[in-house]
Amino acid sequence: MAIRPRVGVLPIVGWAIAWAPWVITEFILAPVSAATQRRYEYEADAAASAIGLSSALSSALRKLGAFEAGRAGWERAMVATHPATELRLEALERPRSDDAVYQERDLGLPTLKELSRILRSAAGVVVRARQ
């Protein structure tokens, strides 16, 4: 007959107490803090550009970009305190006359017109499927 070790209640209580703060820190506080820090980086870049240092900053970012580790994984991207170098360089560039042509539409909710078209086409599919 094998003797099984007794699992006390202490590890379970410890886990229950530590789990909630870990979840809050990992999935709420860290991403919010990182997003704020990324915004500060963009503001600092804009301030450098405003005082005429955009070309020097762009040069430095290009040189440092060679050492930037790839950003893989949702968690790593969410807690990154600095924006990707490419995005910082793009923000430093002056707007061009044809920028609007190459911009993608902002991601967001569909307009009311689009929503009604989607609902009408879905209703048509349901009606055809019942026939």
**Total E-strand runs:** 0
Main β-sheet, in a few words?
none
Q: Tell me, briefly, the overall form.
A: flat
H/E series? HHHHHH
Instruction: Tell me the strand percentage band.
Output: under 5%
Q: Find the structural class using helix and strand composition.
A: mainly alpha
Radius of gyration: 25 Å
| Count of helical stretches | 6
Task: State mean pLDDT (0 to 100 scale).
Answer: 81
Please give a structural write-up.
The chain has 131 residues and is an all-alpha fold. It has a domain at 11-95. Helices cover 69% and strands 0% of the residues. The protein has 6 helices and no strands. It has helices at 9-50, 54-65, 74-79, 85-92, 99-102, 112-130. Helix 2 (54-65) runs antiparallel to helix 4. The longest helix has 42 residues, at 9-50. It is flat and about 75 Å long.
Summarize the structure.
The chain has 131 residues and is an all-alpha fold.
Keywords:
131 residues, mainly alpha, 6 helices, flat
Give the arrangement of secondary structure elements:
Layout: H1 9-50, H2 54-65, H3 74-79, H4 85-92, H5 99-102, H6 112-130
